[in-house]
Amino acid sequence: MAWKTAGNLDALLAATDPNRLPRARRLFEHARAVFDDDEAAGHWLSTPNPALSGHAPLSLLATDAGARRVDDVLTRLEFGVYA
Protein backbone atom coordinates (compact mmCIF):
# COMPACT_ATOMS: atom_id res chain seq x y z
CA MET A 1 0.00 0.00 0.00
CA ALA A 2 1.42 3.38 -0.94
CA TRP A 3 1.33 6.00 1.78
CA LYS A 4 1.52 9.34 0.01
CA THR A 5 -0.19 11.56 2.60
CA ALA A 6 -1.61 11.51 6.09
CA GLY A 7 -5.00 11.69 4.32
CA ASN A 8 -4.59 8.05 3.27
CA LEU A 9 -4.19 7.13 6.92
CA ASP A 10 -7.25 9.22 7.82
CA ALA A 11 -9.42 7.39 5.31
CA LEU A 12 -8.25 3.95 6.40
CA LEU A 13 -8.75 4.54 10.09
CA ALA A 14 -12.00 6.47 9.80
CA ALA A 15 -13.46 3.49 7.97
CA THR A 16 -12.56 1.12 10.79
CA ASP A 17 -12.69 3.09 14.05
CA PRO A 18 -12.98 6.88 14.17
CA ASN A 19 -11.64 6.94 17.76
CA ARG A 20 -8.21 5.84 16.54
CA LEU A 21 -7.70 8.80 14.23
CA PRO A 22 -6.06 11.25 16.68
CA ARG A 23 -3.64 8.56 17.89
CA ALA A 24 -2.83 7.44 14.37
CA ARG A 25 -2.27 10.97 13.12
CA ARG A 26 0.13 11.73 15.97
CA LEU A 27 2.05 8.49 15.45
CA PHE A 28 2.15 8.94 11.69
CA GLU A 29 3.68 12.39 12.24
CA HIS A 30 6.22 10.89 14.65
CA ALA A 31 7.09 8.11 12.18
CA ARG A 32 7.40 10.65 9.37
CA ALA A 33 9.84 12.67 11.49
CA VAL A 34 11.87 9.54 12.34
CA PHE A 35 12.03 8.20 8.78
CA ASP A 36 11.90 11.59 7.00
CA ASP A 37 9.59 10.09 4.37
CA ASP A 38 5.81 9.51 4.17
CA GLU A 39 6.05 6.20 2.36
CA ALA A 40 8.71 4.80 4.71
CA ALA A 41 6.62 5.91 7.70
CA GLY A 42 3.52 4.21 6.30
CA HIS A 43 5.45 1.06 5.54
CA TRP A 44 6.89 0.92 9.06
CA LEU A 45 3.46 1.46 10.61
CA SER A 46 1.88 -1.35 8.58
CA THR A 47 4.68 -3.95 8.88
CA PRO A 48 4.91 -6.49 11.73
CA ASN A 49 7.61 -5.43 14.15
CA PRO A 50 9.61 -7.69 16.51
CA ALA A 51 9.81 -4.87 19.09
CA LEU A 52 5.99 -4.97 19.24
CA SER A 53 5.74 -8.75 19.70
CA GLY A 54 5.37 -9.19 15.96
CA HIS A 55 2.38 -6.85 15.65
CA ALA A 56 2.13 -4.14 13.03
CA PRO A 57 2.13 -0.75 14.78
CA LEU A 58 -1.23 0.20 13.25
CA SER A 59 -2.84 -2.86 14.82
CA LEU A 60 -2.04 -1.52 18.30
CA LEU A 61 -3.78 1.85 17.94
CA ALA A 62 -7.11 0.69 19.36
CA THR A 63 -5.90 1.54 22.87
CA ASP A 64 -3.83 4.26 24.49
CA ALA A 65 -1.50 1.61 25.91
CA GLY A 66 -0.86 0.19 22.44
CA ALA A 67 -0.23 3.64 21.01
CA ARG A 68 2.26 4.34 23.81
CA ARG A 69 4.14 1.13 22.94
CA VAL A 70 4.37 2.24 19.30
CA ASP A 71 5.46 5.74 20.32
CA ASP A 72 8.13 4.25 22.61
CA VAL A 73 9.58 2.16 19.76
CA LEU A 74 9.63 5.21 17.47
CA THR A 75 11.40 7.24 20.14
CA ARG A 76 14.00 4.51 20.60
CA LEU A 77 14.59 4.44 16.84
CA GLU A 78 14.82 8.22 16.77
CA PHE A 79 17.54 8.27 19.43
CA GLY A 80 19.33 5.06 18.44
CA VAL A 81 18.33 3.02 21.50
CA TYR A 82 17.58 -0.47 20.23
CA ALA A 83 17.42 -2.49 23.45
Give descriptors for this structure:
0% strand, 83 residues, 4 helices, mainly alpha
SSE blueprint:
Blueprint: H1 6-16, H2 21-35, H3 38-46, H4 64-79
Structure description:
It is globular, with a radius of gyration of 12 Å. The chain has helices spanning 6-16, 21-35, 38-46, 64-79. The protein has one domain. It is mostly helical. The chain contains four helices and no strands.
Number of domains: 1
| Average of the residue pLDDT scores | 85
- Spans of at least 5 consecutive residues whose pLDDT stays below 50 are none
State the order of secondary-structure elements, H for helix, E for strand.
HHHH
Structural Rg: 12 Å
What is the multimeric organization of the chains shown?
single chain
| Count of helix runs | 4
Strands, count: 0
Form type: globular
The rounded distance between the terminal residues' Cα atoms is 29 Å
Which class best fits the helix and strand makeup?
Answer: mainly alpha
Hey, roughly how much beta strand do the residues contain? under 5%
Q: Level of helix content?
A: 55-70%
State the major sheet: none
